[in-house]
Design a protein that fits this description.
The chain is α+β, with helices and mostly antiparallel strands. It has nine helices and 21 strands. Among the domains are: 88 residues, PDZ domain (Pdz3 Domain); 167 residues, 2-enoyl-CoA Hydratase, Chain A, domain 1 (Alpha-Beta Complex). The N terminus is likely disordered.
Amino acid sequence: MLGPDLCPRPRGVRRGAALALVFVTVLATAAATNCLPGAEREPVALPAGASAAQGVDARQGHTTRGGDRTAEDVARAAAEAEADGKSGTRAAEEAVGRSGDRWGAVYDKAEYEQYADALEGRYTGVGLWLALTGDGRTQVTRVEAGGPAARAGIEPGDFLHSVDQWSADGRPVTDAVARLRGDAAGSKVVVGLSRGSRSWTRTLDRAVLGTHDVSVTDLSAKAVVIKVAAFSKGSGALVRDAVRRAPKGAGILLDLRGNSGGLVTEATAAASAFLDGGLVATYDVHGRQRALYAQGGGDGARPLVVLIDGGTMSAAELLTGALQDRGRAVTVGSRTFGKGSVQMPTGLPGGSVAELTVGHYRTPAGHGLDGSGITPDLPVTEHALEHAETVLSGLGGAT
């Protein structure tokens, strides 16, 4: 399911891996790349100007030449194109494509602003989560309370058929998400909908909305589900607060299914909810080794089960690897995606931004994630939540 109409689809080399982060997913979703990615959400870095420690993003990728050299080549291509009166963004996309950096991405100024907003936990849109049905229709799966779509009377189960006269039927959900997002709060978008035998159109005013990437559900007095859709700003603190508020003796089901990443610092903060300090991951940037550590004071005793699947990527894999390697959690579900590279932003002439691979992450036990992902302790493909509850019960955390 794609999250709210959160994330734009990246241009050029990333065009096929829509930040739907999101990036909808997120990325509001999206992968969206990162998207905030949910629609799809991809792990992303902070806007230019943020510190290197904050701006690191975990994604799978391959750098066939030195990261510094690639950045220089991309910047040079953009500058030469701008000087010739051509698109610096397009030239940069082509240079990234030639570099061999599989997950390198180029965003124009407006796209990167949306990307950064998603990481800040907000997006411009109408407040709809969408999914493609088996017969190729786009269905509303969730409506943001108080958002433009909710105020217009749109409900879960309604079908979205058009966006500004563009037909959504049979098209990728990420395309519909990108069109719903638009460019600015206050701009209008006309949507065509149906419910049963009724069809109608509504004109909606886009607004700045929150992504709500962390949700908490009490299954019982002994089991609490913490669902993290993406690691946007503040999500780590929300996870820690949820653990602290959980009933005494209750176990935690940490649901990272479909979480395609986000800010590594937020994933590290989330790890601090369950670890009393210690190593979370190591990584290299241009060959220089660095490490991420949990803060002290985390709850290291409460029973913990982590739910994962093939949509668990990047920063979410980093968190999963830390909890698994350190014996803190039992993991349930299917093998994760396998995205474990570090990307950082480079500002380009003309205002666009390139995110290029500069290194790779490893779990506390030294395991790389690229291409291999994380194999769960209990592999299941169906009814994963029910299996996770059973495991939690065995750990003493569920009724």
